[in-house]
Amino acid sequence: MTPSCTDGVENLAGNCVFCEIIEGRRKAEILHEDSEVLAFRDILPQAPTHILIIPKAHFPSAAAADPALWGKVMTVAVKLAAELGIEAEGFRLVINNGPKAGQTIPHLHVHLLAGRSFRWPPG
Ligand code: 5GP
Ligand code: ZN
Predict the structure, then answer these.
(1) Structural domain of residue 97, as residue ranges?
(2) Is residue 96 part of a domain?
(3) How far is residue 108's CA from residue 95's CA, in Å, rounded to a whole number?
(4) Most CB contacts within 10 A, which of 27, 34, 68, 76?
(5) For 7-20, how does the pLDDT look when each residue is reduced to its tens digit (9 = 90+)?
(6) pLDDT in tens, 79-109
(7) Closest-lying ligand to the alpha carbon of 6?
(8) Neighbours of ion ligand 2 (CB under 5 A)
(9) What 3-state DSSP class applies to 25?
(10) Ligand 1 atom with minimal separation from the 101 CA
């Protein structure tokens, strides 16, 4: 069976924007799709390359996520970095988890950022 956004933790009001992308109800530039993971370009890029990698199952936070998904999501992130030719120059993987970390979309996602220099600490 193909997992869908309803297979994770209940999607609160049924109006998660990332679930809408998964279901094809919201447009996105998709770079990778398999039965469990989707990757697409961020609508408001913070770097020349800014991609979001998400599990198709709806998990509102990192803490809530099915541990079995971590490897799959990260494997896609690293695969995309290789395909996009940004491995050598460097890239950043970010998970904003919760309000103080700046999470705005309650559907677990990994940011893949590249194409410029990043500061540390991130601020
Ligand atoms: P967060 O702040 O939760 O870590 O990241 C959410 C990200 O989702 C932001 O970088 C934001 O620009 C992106 N985003 C929000 N709505 C949409 C959308 O409808 N489509 C796409 N492609 N990205 C979105
Ligand atoms: Zn969702």
Answers:
(1) 5-114
(2) yes
(3) 8
(4) 76
(5) 555 555 568 999 99
(6) 999 999 999 999 999 999 999 999 999 999 9
(7) 2
(8) 5, 16, 18-19, 58, 107
(9) coil
(10) 4
